[in-house]
Design goal:
Elements (H helix, E strand, L loop, with lengths): L4 H13 L6 H16 L12 H11 L6 H18 L19 E6 L2 E6 L10 H16 L4 E6 L20 H22 L4 E5 L3 E2 L1 H4 L6 E5 L3 E3 L13 H9 L1 H8 L5 E2 H6 L5 E3 L4 H12 L4 H34 L2 H11 L6
Parallel strand pairs: 2-3, 3-4, 4-6, 5-7, 6-9
Antiparallel strand pairs: 1-2, 7-8
This protein binds ligand LQQ7U7AH.
The site of ligand LQQ7U7AH has 27 residues, from helix 5 and helix 6.
Length: about 350
């Protein structure tokens, strides 16, 4: 099968997520194939004998002779996929050595029939930018059609996600705050609709604290596995906001109205154990074993007959879907109005001037 540009880009992202160093020999092979695939045959002058690293790279690239770019691209994808299949579960993305984040703010990988969407903005506690909302929708769209059985959301770094990036509210378009609020409401509704309609089991691996919209949409997930370091916080009132992600419906249903009110109206932060007791979290794992235990379990789940899994999920979900869409629409309209409120504007300003933290 010929590798497309998309396969190639996905392989490049995958390499950046590898936890283990694959060793110099593999790195040289990957380097040479990458250069051949993107630039064609090596026509650089040979580095001097003492320039050991660049000479090794030059040798590896030159050894590919006139291999066509497309073949190099294919060989690169094949090599990455063979090495990934033999490797450990997908590891959280690592910051690059120079402090830049590898793979962009959102990293999507697919292996062992699991598509993993990783928030990868650890320096900002994985706060979700407008672009990330769009990329998550694209990733969900692709995952709904790929050969994966499960789709996982997780975070890179010490946080799972600090919720909506509060600077999303600051770029006001020519139509003024009303236009901004209207556009955001439409986009938010579309974003949440993706989760309501997603056809495969959705799993959250909550590796650390979760805030705001990253908590509320958990009510639309099938499984929520959490580190014992995770906390669950929806500080809507202090921000002049109201709940979203269908949480005004899913949370009371799941934990009862008064526990839901404590979280959604009064902003009580839950520990992972409390969230588990309230039904928001499926199971809590010691932080040190979370990755190993969860990924082993998820891989076992992918071996179940996929059509049976989908059918069971569909019969569990179909009855509530219409209701969820109605709730989503109502929540987005309430938020459209909240975004135009003085209470919300002052909360965002307080955060921007760093006087306010949760
Ligand atoms: C397609 C749809 C588009 C529509 C767009 C609108 C959609 C709206 C969706 C619904 C709206 C709201 C729902 C929510 O999610 S409300 C919750 C919002 N989140 C917060 O209020 C959290 C704010 N952050 C904090 O209180 C603290 O940062 C923290 C998370 C408690 C961590 O504290 P810390 O002391 O450990 O770390 P700190 O130094 O503060 O943070 C490190 C840097 O990260 C930046 N940062 C953290 N969180 C956010 C955030 N949510 N938005 C923007 N930036 C964030 C923080 O500013 C630091 O940056 P810097 O180092 O100073 O540059």
């Amino acid at each position: 099968m010929r590798a497309s540009q998309k396969d190639f880009e996905s392989a490049l992202r995958q390499v950046k997520l590898w936890k283990k160093d694959p060793g110099n020999e593999v790195k040289l092979k990957l380097y040479a194939l990458y250069k051949q695939a993107t630039e064609g045959p090596c026509n650089l002058p040979k580095p001097g004998m003492m320039d050991l690293v660049n000479k090794a790279k030059w040798d590896a690239w030159s050894a590919l002779g006139s291999l066509p770019k497309e073949t190099a691209r294919e060989n690169y994808v094949d090599l990455v996929s063979s090495l990934s299949a033999a490797s450990e579960p997908p590891s959280p993305a690592k910051p690059a050595a120079d402090g830049e984040q590898a793979g962009g703010d959102l990293v999507v990988t697919s292996e062992n029939h699991i598509t993993t969407i990783t928030f990868n903005r650890p320096a900002k506690k994985n706060a979700i930018t407008t672009q990330m909302y769009r990329d998550i929708m694209l990733a969900l769209q692709a995952a709904s059609k790929d050969d994966s059985v499960l789709t996982v959301l997780t975070g890179n770094g010490d946080y799972y996600c600090s919720g909506n990036d509060l600077t999303n509210f600051t770029d006001i378009p020519p139509g003024g705050p009303e236009e901004k609020a209207r556009t955001n409401a439409v986009l938010l509704r579309e974003f949440v609709d993706y989760f309501i309609d997603f056809p495969k089991p959705l799993v959250a691996v909550v590796n650390g604290p979760a805030v705001g919209i990253s908590v509320t949409i958990l009510g639309l997930f099938d499984l929520v596995y959490a580190s014992d370091r995770a906390t669950f916080h929806t500080p809507f009132s202090p921000l002049g906001l109201s709940p979203e992600g269908c949480s005004s419906y899913t949370f009371p249903k799941m934990m009862g109205p008064s526990k839901a009110a404590e979280m959604l109206i009064f902003g009580r932060k839950l520990t992972a154990q409390e969230a588990c007791a309230q039904g928001l979290v499926t199971e809590v794992f010691p932080d040190s074993t979370l990755q190993k235990e969860v990924w082993t379990r998820l891989r076992a789940y992918t071996k179940l007959p996929p059509n049976a899994v989908r059918t069971s999920r569909e019969v569990m979900r179909s009855k509530g879907r219409e209701r969820l869409h109605a709730v989503n629409a109502e929540e987005c309209e309430a938020l459209r109005q909240r975004w135009l409120s003085e209470e919300c504007a002052s909360a965002v300003l307080r955060f921007m001037s760093r006087k306010a933290k949760l």
